[in-house]
Design brief:
- The structure is a homodimer.
- Among the domains of chain A are: 186-346 and 590-619, no CATH class; 347-436.
- By secondary structure, chain A is mainly alpha-helical.
- In chain A, helix 7 (146-181) packs antiparallel against helix 20 and helix 13 crosses helix 17.
- Chain A contains 27 helices and 4 strands.
- Chain A has a 4-stranded antiparallel beta sheet with strand order 2-3-1-4, with helices on both faces.
């Protein structure tokens, strides 16, 4: 890649940024878009879709950028929860790392690289210079200037480790503070119990009740047994569809009635038939749902959400082995009620195990098949090869601007497009892997994407054979967060509507990924110093990954336990605060039904669709 | 090694066995040896050293063999605890595995091996045949007979896995039963707390007291802070020595007084001076001990044994993170009071870390240096080489019996002698590694010896280059338990005086080692089938280690948690039983002082030595 191609790419990106920025500033003021741009405010009822937005003009609306930077972390915390704060801090962390890397890279390393003579490139025609002139490739073999790179690796590692440590420290203290300040939440009082043994003639529900009444007599509150509801869910989905069609027909009827008044009489009778047909069908379906719902009561899965009166009891139940057999009465911390992913509860161990194997196989296949788009991109950066493969393009490719776009912008665009397909695919794969919480699915997908990226950058690297050049790319994925960091705050505050709250549990993933990147950088540095014939620098870099790993193990010991659960001290203090809280008894009432399968909750067509109202359905289950 | 040499070796071993058996049968009847042969009975006062033993004769005493096999497991359990039972079961397990291996090996595999022609050895002179004639080496390459070996590997693995499973199941159920039947034991009610934070002006003891009074108000009982007592221990050791000398002089004085009566007057005055000297010295030392003991009170280590009123509270405290900082208030299950290894409590984290590193280095060095005796042994089995190195031995070595002893018996004797040095060395190494329980030291030493053996058998193997022959050796370490199993029962019942009780916690080590041996056998089998040109058998053996590992992971999930702690169900039931037990309050009193450092317990010279009695010392600390 040559310098002018890079600059073309930068120019296109900046132009697109400006375009999107302008479009966003205009579109967000349209009242009809409020649902799309400020869904959280609409959802919370703080903003009516047809509000004051309509009077503002384009230029005043650019102020959102300023407003976006204003909210403090505390505002974010109270509005969107700890996860949003941690999310923001991850961006800020990325930005800080990038800022340091840019300063060191541009003002120290780049000039020294440029002064090298290794690549013997003509000095006169700067725009057409290969980017390698600015990379470490251009430093003379065995040159003492390589010691500047050596120092940079040490200093960069130290700075990143310092940032990681202070961030970990900050987030874990925030986590405790958030726990203290949060209202009682169902998942703090609840454990998920699996592999519940049943004796003959006794239901799962009775087993759970008698076991926990026996061993936690003073703190056991209630339980919800999980039931096989996939058939019920199917029926409800069908009923939903019919209900939507019914509403559609009704609204048409309404317009037709208005039309009728103004003279159109035509197909009215037929519409009434259709309406009757759908209402009849919905009535039948509601009957089916009711029948299925009564039969579901018997379809118990040996798993239950068990709620306690105190957080400590829930923690004790989740930490201690409960039954004599270690394979029975398995307990784990329950996810948020909104975070529960129901479909995989009812599946057997064998089915889950096979799904798991299939997902692993699929992930590996996708990771390897991704080499196809990478090869296409590699072809584009080598224009000469492209001319050989597709000779008819020769005329176009020789236009300067085309060649710059093709070699500078198109490769990264194509790669980004393909890369953007990966996360949704990984989420689908993770969701069929048998997790019981949406947050677990997202975390697993996140890790999958991470490994996918790492493997592909390296596999692509080996294929292209220019390992030295790629080092810059590895050091630069940090540029992405910067762009995002500018755009995200305003978005988070207005757009982000938290579905569940993990209390910042995903920070350790970011930490581990950063440590991995550092170790990778060290290994590459050791290799480069070897290639560049400074073996002493190579050997002196070896302690660095070891020190980094020691630092990591210290961080794991020092902070990670705080992300797995809450300490007894906090649980007991918080429980004591609750005792003096008058709202706790109403919370207990809510808690008793919090973990009911959504399919078992009353559906509301009846009250809305009017005619087919059946009060038993509303109060069933 | 040739057959006759093996038979010579077997003959010598059987002869030695008979000799030791006869010696034991005679010597155990000497009343003066009771302390040595039945120390447990003597210690428990069930047997006076000068008892009925003296009247029996040699032949009736051979009955001990019969009696040794009579005690049931329940007797063993009530006499020597669960550890003794598990120990016995390990021998029995080894014996069962060995019995199966012998039946398959001698009656199925050996005849087929012998019928092979691969090694082309003369059939007429059986005694001088190499043992390899009976090994798989003699089976023709590509022969269908190798499928018998293939089946044997599968069947052997299945049988061993079945035995492992039933043993694990049996021992873990015994563990729970033993827990239910056992009297309250201090370690069930106690946790060890480390890294106790202290605020200025507050002692560790005050910190512990206020923390546990705050968070476990209803169940917290007492605590003992660990103190730096190495100096005190030194003083007590010195005082012990002086006290022993004093007793020695006194007993001499007593005999001299008797001599005096019968006329010898001589050196009496001098003896009295010596007695005075030692008494004075002991008095000074007791003074020093008393002074040091008062100053020790201030030498607190940030660690304490914290006792609770219920087992559940102790389990909760050891399972949950206690303080907000995960590096403070670290809790773990306390060892038995008798099991506590005090010296390493007071050492700093850095010292422990450095000791750990040094021990790892020493272990690796010993493991590698062991190649020296192995090489000597290898030299002995190759007599011809020995003749070249030491030509003057030629005459002796050509005697048939000498050559058979040298090649058949001497190598294993020398190896066993060197091997017998390894366990004590490993115990010394483990004891300076920073463990706080004797049982942990023994377990760690056990694992070290295991890896030492595995590595050395293989390293020796690679050196000697006869990988096929050694397979038999790997399959045969199980022969050792059989010999031991015959001798051990009577011994365990009378000799074994349990110092501490782990509740059979070492069984998982045996399980893991057996699984490792199986996998090793599979890998070797895969290699052999490859070498013997039956690639299909080689490939078909590959699933076996995978299946074994799946079996192992199932066992770990199914049984291992039972060996790490007790389930909530058992803890709560046992606690409830205690509530109706009238002796529990006296147990609580004992518990409060159970974890006092032995150096802080009263010493008893004063009351026994009479003259230098100082009542404050008796009641101090």
């Amino acid at each position: 890649m040559i310098l002018s191609a890079l600059l073309t790419s930068v120019g296109i990106n900046v132009g697109l940024c400006f375009l999107f920025f302008t479009l966003y500033s205009i579109l967000r003021n349209r009242p009809s878009n409020a649902n799309l741009y400020v869904p959280r405010l609409v959802a919370e009822g703080e903003l009516e879709p047809e509000d004051e937005f309509s009077v503002r003009n384009l230029f005043s609306s650019v102020k959102w950028v300023k407003r976006a930077w204003q909210p403090s972390e505390d505002e974010l915390l109270s509005n969107s929860g700890l996860d949003a704060v941690v999310f923001m801090r991850i961006f800020t962390f990325g930005f800080r790392v990038f800022r340091f890397a840019v300063i060191v890279g541009i003002f120290i390393l780049l000039p020294f690289n440029y002064m090298g003579n290794q690549l013997n490139i003509d000095f006169t025609d700067l725009p057409n210079k290969s980017l390698e002139t600015f990379s470490i490739s251009n430093v003379d073999d065995g040159s003492n200037r390589l010691w500047i790179h050596f120092s940079a690796v040490y200093v960069f590692t130290a700075v990143v480790c310092y940032l990681l440590y202070s961030e970990y420290d900050y987030i874990s203290s925030k986590r405790i503070a958030f726990f203290y300040s949060s209202k009682p939440r169902p998942n703090q009082f609840t454990v998920l119990v699996r592999s519940i043994p049943t004796t003959s003639g006794r239901s799962v529900s009775e087993s759970v009740e008698s076991f926990f009444r026996e061993y936690y007599p003073s703190t056991y509150l209630s339980h919800s047994v999980v039931r096989r509801t996939s058939k019920l869910k199917g029926l409800i989905n069908e009923a939903d569809k019919v209900y939507k069609r019914l509403r559609h027909v009704k609204s048409k009827k309404y317009t037709q009635q208005r039309f009728k008044r103004s003279g159109f009489m035509g197909l009215f009778g037929q519409k009434v038939d259709l309406l009757d047909h759908y209402e009849k069908k919905l009535e039948d379906m509601e009957g089916n749902v009711r029948t299925e719902r009564t039969s579901v009561a018997g379809k118990e899965v040996p798993a239950a959400f068990v709620s306690f009166k105190s957080r400590l009891s829930a923690a004790v139940a989740s930490h201690l082995q409960q039954g004599v057999k270690p394979t029975e009465w398995l307990t784990e911390t329950a996810p948020d009620p909104q975070d529960v992913y129901w479909p995989f509860f009812s599946s057997s161990f064998l089915k889950r195990w096979m799904c798991n194997l299939a997902v692993i196989f699929a992930c590996i296949s996708i990771t390897f098949l991704f080499v196809v788009p990478v090869l296409i991109v590699q072809g584009l950066t080598h224009l000469d090869q492209l001319e050989i493969w597709l000779p008819f393009l020769r005329g176009i490719l020789h236009l300067k601007i085309v060649s710059q776009v093709v070699t500078g912008y198109l490769p990264s665009l194509i790669l980004e497009m393909f890369l953007s397909l990966v996360p949704p695919v990984m989420i689908v794969l993770s969701s069929i892997q048998g997790y019981i919480a949406l947050s677990q699915i997202e975390k697993s997908a996140c890790i999958k994407v991470l490994w996918f990226t790492v493997w592909n950058i390296f596999f692509a690297n080996v294929l292209s054979g220019s390992a030295l050049y790629k080092v810059d790319i590895i050091l630069e994925p940090k540029r992405l967060p910067e762009l995002l960091a500018v755009a995200v705050p305003g978005q988070l505050l207005n757009v982000y509507e938290p579905k569940f709250e993990t209390g910042g549990k995903f920070w350790p993933v970011v930490h581990d990924a950063t440590i991995f990147s550092l170790i990778l950088m060290h290994v590459i540095a050791i290799g480069i110093f070897g290639v560049k014939k400074v073996p002493l620098a190579s050997s002196l870099t070896i302690p660095l990954p070891i020190l980094t790993l020691i630092f990591n193990s210290y961080c794991r010991r020092r902070f990670l336990p705080s992300f797995k659960g809450y300490p007894a001290e906090c649980l007991i203090n918080k429980d004591r605060l609750d005792q003096s809280d008058p709202t706790i008894s109403s919370f207990y009432d809510e808690l008793a039904t919090a973990y009911r399968d959504p399919a078992m909750k009353p559906i509301r067509y009846s009250s809305e669709s009017g005619e087919s109202s059946h009060s038993p359905l509303l109060h069933s289950a």
